[in-house]
Structure formats: structure tokens, C-alpha cells
Amino acid sequence: MPTLKVNDLEMYYEIHGEENETPLVLIMGLGSDAKPWLLQIPEFSVNYKVIVFDNRDMGRTSKTDINYTIETMAEDTYHLLKKLEVEKAHILGFSMGGMIAQAFALSYPEKVRSLILCSTTPQGPKGLNILRMWNELIETILHIAKYLNIEQLAKYHHIQLPAAFIRQCEAVEKFDVTERLKDIKAPTLVLVGERDIIAPIWHAKGMASKIPNAQLKVLWGYGHPLFLENAWAFNKVVLEFLEKH
Known about the structure:
Elements: E1 3-6, E2 9-16, E3 23-27, H1 41-44, E4 49-53, H2 70-83, E5 89-94, H3 96-107, E6 112-118, H4 130-145, H5 150-156, H6 162-174, E7 188-193, H7 201-210, E8 214-219, H8 226-229, H9 231-243
């Protein structure tokens, strides 16, 4: 199980398509480890060096007992890539991972070849409903279960302790880069499902209008976990964008 010492963590990571030259970093969302990228990794790793990892307080990455911010998690990502000797990469983030991707692009613009923000917002909801977020997480896990057999499913979910889930929720709630979106320099794709109730379409439109070099793509008829609900369409949109950058 590959891990690297990153800040105060032992951070779990995987590299797929290691023989390829161009790195593509996939950052997962709240309460999930890297496993949900199972429908993206095989296709993306044909032409890209795909790097996935478990965020702090999740999965096979070590846990912490202190509070942190989305910016802390962006810093984790930076130090992981530095240790992997990745100079510049395409950065794709889903939901909370999209927040991490925004913070990363603002703090380390020299590291970003292009940016893909999926099902995310530039500002965490105030008074975040943790129960609602937990229910959304369970729904995502059930989507994943459709693609795993029983043995794989039993091995899949690395249980997140309630305190760790709450720490991630608090990091989401404190996040706000709305006024800094104009400073994102990388070519950006904002990708959203028309039925997303966690990160609604108007948030995506607002982000795309404020990021100087951004384009918006809506997948009609789909909700929050786009990359699972319609992996074929999601992968196609992402790969077409990457080919241009």
C-alpha cells in the first residue's frame, strides 16, 4: 500500500498509467476515499498519468485530531505532488475535491496545467446540514455498489469516524473563495449536473462567469455524482477538454 509522509500525514496514493507523460490528478469529495474513481481510472490512464489519493481523515491516509481547512488539504496535495516530482498537472476535483482544486489553483498556479471543477461551489454552505451531507454520501456509496461485486464491496469502504467526517464538514463550511475566482489563471472547465441539489447549477454558472478562462458544461438530467451516474458522458467531456490543453 503506497504512502508518503506529507505534512503530519501518511498519505495514501495510487498512480495509474505511469508510463504516460502528462499527469492528471483526481481529487475526491467529502467522506470518500479514492475508490469512486473506478469508472474514470481505466479510461483516463490510457493517455494520462493518473494520480489519485485519499484525503486527510479518510480511507488509507492517516487520521488527524485537529481542525483544518480546505486550504490545508490543498497544501497536502501540493506536498504529495512535490514528493512525486510532478511539476505541473491537470487538476480535477469533485464536490469538496473541487473546493480543494480551487484552493490549489489559487495557492500554486504554477502547478496547474488546467482545472476541472465538478459538482462544486466556491463557498461552503453556512449552517451546513451534516445529516443531509451524510445521506448524500450514502447515496454515492450505493451508486458505487452497482459496479462492485460483494467481495469488492466488503473491501471497499474504509470507515470514516464520525469526528473525522465532522472535521471535513467544518472545513467545507468555512471555505469561501468567491471573491478570488477572478485570480484563477488556468484554463478551467466547470462541470455540473442539471439536477444537482448539493452544488446547484446556479453556483456553477456563477463560477464560470467569474473565472477568466472558464467554460461551463451542464449534463442534463443528472445529479451530484455525475462521474458515476453517467460515466460515459462525464469521461467524454473531460477528455475532450484535456485534449485542448
